[in-house]
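A note from the maintainers: we've had questions about how concatenated examples are separated. There is no special marker in the raw files; a new sequence line simply starts the next protein. For clarity in this README we add a label.
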Amino acid sequence: EQYRLAIVEEQKETTNLLETLLILFFIIAIISTFIGFIFFLLPTRTILFAVAESSSKMTELDPEIDCNERTGMGAAGWKDQYSCDCQRIDKQHQIILLYLAQIVKKQIEIAGIVVRATFASLRDEEHLINEYKIANTHKKEHYIQHAAIIRKIQQAMLSLAQSRTKDAQTLIPSSHAQSLIRLYSSWLSDHVTKMDRELVTVLIGKAPESELEREVQTTSKLHVPHSYTQFLDSDNASLKDRSLFTKLIKILKLKDSRSEE
């Protein structure tokens, strides 16, 4: 009987030892996985991003890629067949084409400035609405109109930008510029002269004159109006709406202030 008890006791001790070792190995495995993730996987990810960024920069420095920046663009780009075999004259011709290329480049930059200025204006109006506790009925309608305006501007700007990205060396068609002008003209007549005037009428009795005369500067970052962030976060926004907004920021090379918050 004592022998049997001794055997059972020994088996229990062995079982307990194995369970302890199993738990210990499990803990070691978790710690090793965590350490591996911190010290190996994350640095590798950082290295891959660095390599990708470096590759992008190398592409920008590639003389062939940079050719249009140096000698013109598209059909009006400099070719050997245009040479007059006179360095002085050829150089002057190339300079003309270089300035022409800059016109194309600046168009997209200016489009980005227009978007930033528009967003800043709408966001400031919404700040005044909230700061001076304008009636919810007006606020709701104002927000709805702002979100609708931004969607239209977003679509127009994407069409304008993509008309160039399909062939990066061509000027933006005048039809896109005219469409954008019509859109802003509609905004002035349908929104500014009605909804914004109504807002100002209420603000005059609530806000100090100094606040209504203060000049608001457009910053280098894109400040998205609350009306549009609410729209994008709501069930009314489709995946396409969110995707197009992200695409707009990327194409126009805008810096979204929300990414730093």
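[label: protein 2]
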Amino acid sequence: MTVSPPDIAHENVPRYTSYPTAPYFHSGVGLSQFDSWLRGIKLGQTVSPGIHIPYCHQLGWFCGCTTKHTPGAMMLWRPS
């Protein structure tokens, strides 16, 4: 099955990154905060967990990351 953006554009669903929203994530978020969020999920509640590791070989049409795609494994920024 192939699904394209126009096929799902009319669906009333959140983006995969929409909850919790970006402002909830910062350097102060740690294990205790994640534990609290996970414990807040009620038994039987449907959830869709996901992990995004932004080391893609190409950008997807769905990507909301502030990033730049480069050929090869070129480092754009090094933490100080």
